[in-house]
Amino acid sequence: MLKIENLSVKIDDRDILKNFEISINDGEVHAIMGPNGTGKSTLSKVIMGSRDYDILSGKIIFNDEDISSLEVDERSRKGIFLSMQSPISIEGVTNSEFLRTALNARTNEPIGLFDFIKTMETSMKELDMKNDIVHKAINEGSSGGERKKNEVLQIKVLKPSFIILDEVDSGLDVDSLRVVCENINKYREENPKTSILIITHYPRILEYIKPDYVHMMVDGKIVKTGDYNFAFEIDKSGYTELVNE
User: Residue 233: CB partners within 8 Å, gap ≥ 6?
Assistant: First the structure.
């Protein structure tokens, strides 16, 4: 589904990603762990199409198409979704307005109001969200946990095929993390070809959403890859010790 070839990226005069490579097949879950400042969040933003970064070389291939030059909205319509580390609030735009507009932008026929309301109500119930959230401005006055649940609500409504979870566990208590991960797993069961890239510092989320591969990223590139158990090896030994092995 996603293949990144020799991707080098900089911001201002700082090189961040350095000949980065990864290949993710349909239905696979990959996790990336690494120290702060190594380029994990940069990777998520570059895949999504942020223009804050300059691509020096390399390609981002999504479903056999080079999307390196596409805008954010074009990538979104192709099925890529980024759950941000710190979701922003947007005044004056309600959740229902945003989601219905976004949904209609990626379908040939506008979704009927009844079907949209039914989808929203079912999804919010599964996420244990209050019903009035649909009439509130996006994330306005919301806690960190509510913002992360809202990101998953967007996933359930917009139905992307490739999901990037950038530290979705950040700021979540145990109960909220369980609800968020259960809903993501349910979405995967209903859409088995969906692929997920998890960016995290801690293996806790990986106990809920079990990855097929765990990559250790250091200094802008992947230096080691293992299976699910590799995440706990990283957590136990630390990055420096594993790099020096």
Answer: 226, 242
